[in-house]
């Protein structure tokens, strides 16, 4: 039985990865903060259905000695590093915390695995934010990097740390460059979930308006479980490498809003208010990923369309409001 270690296990991606690996017969160990483990409702809501089948650890990734102890205790065959401060706007407000948390955690994990479990296969969750002010569209693995916010900088550093441990330490270490991926488990601070949750509130008379920033901002939006499947496929390859994980199609925030309101039979123009306070400090150019390499080498492809994604998220928020 393979043993997997997942950081950020209680998050959107971590919870779906727990589901996937359990279905494949893995022994699953998750890492998350003490506050999450000690206050399981609602923090562990995404893991509620699998809590009795996984082992959770409250190891602080910022402490190298603790991470060494974790690796000694678990002895993982595969490690999926998903934990991060991943809210872009928050990173612009508190860049010190974002850089320290994201970079140190990645470095500590790689160094601990290299010392204690060098045979372990490692996955790092990079981000399309590393491209930032893009030089070409769509972006591929060899597109020049130009991050425009502290979150993107932290993810680019983690990407290069992973490459360093692969090339110089001979670890099976790979990075997946995630483009936006959503689901009903998305955090409330992200715009897609803000939209679908507020649409449900408006439908049931609990809200009167939805305040958003730039409606013309475009994103390459995919379905989180599809992207989690890609991470697993990457670690099953004989040779480690870096891959773009994306649908290859972009849609505007306006399109997402239109479809979300249409799902409940409402005209979005009657409820949406554009508020400049929700604009990003640095709005990047259009991020659209070319995942040809992933599709060719790993046999991956997205299974959920943009329309289906929006409908799934709205329907779940309607259900939660009942």
From the structure above, extract its key features.
322 residues; seven-stranded parallel β-sheet; Rossmann fold; UDP-galactose 4-epimerase, domain 1; two-stranded parallel ribbon; alpha/beta; 2 domains
What is this entry, summarized?
With 322 residues, the protein is α/β, with parallel strands linked by helices. The protein is built from twelve helices and 13 strands. It has two domains: 202 residues, Rossmann fold, CATH 3.40.50; 91 residues, UDP-galactose 4-epimerase, domain 1 (Alpha-Beta Complex).
Protein architecture, described:
The chain has 322 residues and is of the alpha/beta class. It folds into two domains: 3-181 and 223-245, 3-Layer(aba) Sandwich (Rossmann fold); 186-219 and 249-287 and 304-321, UDP-galactose 4-epimerase, domain 1 (Alpha-Beta Complex), CATH 3.90.25. It contains twelve helices and 13 strands. The chain has a seven-stranded parallel sheet, sandwiched between helices. It has a two-stranded parallel sheet with strand order 7-10. Strands 8-13 form a two-stranded parallel ribbon. Helix 1 (12-23) links the parallel strand 1 and strand 2. Helix 4 (64-74) packs across helix 6, helix 8 packs parallel to helix 10 and helix 8 packs across helix 12 (306-321). The longest helix is centred in the N-terminal third of the chain and has 22 residues, at 95-116. The protein is globular, with a radius of gyration of 19 Å. It starts with a strand and ends with a helix. 47% of the residues are buried. The model has no long low-confidence stretch (mean pLDDT 92).
